[in-house]
Every structure is written in C-alpha cells, then in structure tokens.
Design a protein that fits this description.
about 270 residues; alpha/beta; 9-stranded mixed beta sheet
Amino acid sequence: MSTQACPIVGIPTCAISVDGKPTYRVVGKYADSVVNGAGCLPLLIPAVGEVGCFVELMGRLDGLFLTGGASNVRPDFYDGEESRAGTLHDPDRDSTTLPLIRAAIAAGVPVFAVCRGIQELNVALGGTLHQNVHELPGKSEHRMNRSVPTDERYDVRHPITIHPGGMLEKMAAEDLAAGREVMVNSLHAQAIDRLGDGLFVEAVSDDGVIEAVSVPGAKAFALGVQWHPEHHTSLQWPLSKAMFGGFGDACRDRMAARRSAGGSSSIRAA
C-alpha cells in the first residue's frame, strides 16, 4: 500500500432530479481527469448553496476544479436578460460555485475551470455572458455536434490564438515552438461577454470568442478554458497534459504549505 500523500481537489456537483429524487452529480470524466491528469484526489462538493463554511472548507482543500454541465448560469446572477423558455438552469450549483470561487481565489487555493466553469469564474468576478454566442454577427457554431458519436464530439473543432505573457503561452510551448496551430474542441452555447474584474484573456477562437482566461493577481494557479480538456481523447493533447500537470503541481504546493502550517492532514493514496 502506497503512503504517498494526495492533494485534495474539490469538485462542485450539479443538482439534478433522478426518478423524482434530488441528486448531486458529477460526470465521471471530470473526477477521472483530476486523478489521471493532475494526480490528485477528487472530493465532491454538494450543490447546497452558500452555507457559510466556505472559509473553513478552503483550509481543507488543495484545489478547486469547476466542470462543464448541461445547465447554464442563471442570468440574474450577472444582471442578464431573461433566458429563453426551455433553458436549463441549476441555481443550487450557481449559489454554491460563485461564492466558492471567490473564497478559493482569496485563500490562494488553485482553481481550474472548464466550459461552464469558465463562465462561473467570469460571473463570480463580476463579468457577464453571451447566452447564445453562435447567434452573434460573425460568430461560428460553437455548440456540441449531437449528430456524431459522443467521443467524436470532443475532437478538435477550431484553432485558438494564445496571447503572449500569460499562463497558456508557457503551457503551449511545445506546439508553438513547432509552429503548430493550437486546436481545441467546442461544445458550448454560452461564452464570456464582459470580462470579470482582474481577468486576463489568455486565448481567443478564430472568430474572436474568449476561449481562456487567468487571474494574474491570484496567489495560486487560476485558469479557465471554454473547451473540454478533460475528456479521455483531449486529455492526450500536449496542452491538456500541461494544464492538468500545472494544476496538479500547484495543488501539491498548496498541500505542502498547508501541512507545514499545521493544516488538516492529507489523505494518503491506497
């Protein structure tokens, strides 16, 4: 049995109903990517809203991973226009993730956010969202292609331009040095509109949609991407490996600092 300590990464869940029963759920690929991509232990956080103990929770976490999801951030959280009829929302998740993000950044807990997660990160820091980005003039179709098998939906769809001076420029060094265009998948309808306070645009798509942001003023790793690097197909891409590796390293640094400061003991891998 291994005694190697594992950083603990919190993953907020979605609140759904299964056979009429309230359920908290995370799709398995997200937990798997925290284990296989970052080398950390996932800990699910139920979507119970802001319960007043997030500061205490930050003292027990080494990272926070925000996932994609079927629902959209409710527009009243960013003073947006009312959603169209039939739009799926998860207010319990919103009420959990938005204050949780702010607490994590303030406490220096590493944050990695994908798809819905980058939208939550932006809203948590005062930004707004486009609810149907594909309908904007000059924008391409960014939504999931439901006509192909599930795994094929995570294949590359379009290039991104990585801005200099940010986190992704270093992480994509292998591709950029070889002169390769960095390609990503696309499975979203919403996207960042007005940028949240203190965010830096790391990358944009070929039609100008914000595809990645970071928080330069954060005490630790804080990155959000609009695509899905966690799927077993995209997790093999050099940039995906670099992002999860960087997140995992930041979580290990956080664990070491927490332990040396006398924080809660880490869970050890079996």
